[in-house]
Amino acid sequence: MFTVPLFPKPQFPKEDRPNYTMGFWSFRIMAGLGMLMLSNHVPGYVFSYNLSQLLTNRFR
């Protein structure tokens, strides 16, 4: 019924395949730095919005 093997043989020799470890960790570092930048910018934006409201509104 099924003639295709479950795990096919790789088409390229091991020395011709790219190193996936570098891509894996590069993506993890990029995503981590993006989250770090986002976590720094969001509170700054909220603080600057509240600060501008404090400076423009008068106390009654």
Q: Quick gist of this model?
A:
It holds the Pfam family Cyt_bd_oxida_I. By secondary structure, the chain is mostly helical.
What does this structure look like?
The protein is mainly alpha-helical. The chain has one domain. The radius of gyration is 26 Å and the shape is rod-shaped. Helix content is 62%, strand content 0%. The chain is built from one helix and no strands. The mean pLDDT is 83. Pfam families: Cyt_bd_oxida_I (PF01654).
The helix/strand order is H
Largest sheet composition: none
Please, how many helices?
A: 1
Q: What value does the average pLDDT take?
A: 83
- Cα radius of gyration in angstroms: 26 Å
- Distance between the first and last residues' Cα: 84 Å
Tell me, briefly, the overall form: rod-shaped
Beta-strand content estimate: under 5%
Number of domains: 1
| Structural class label | mainly alpha
Residue share in helix: 55-70%
Low-confidence stretches: none
The count of β-strands is: 0
Helices and strands in order, then pairings?
Layout: H1 20-56
Question: How would you describe this structure in keywords?
Answer:
60 residues, mainly alpha, rod-shaped, metal-binding, membrane, cell membrane, electron transport, iron
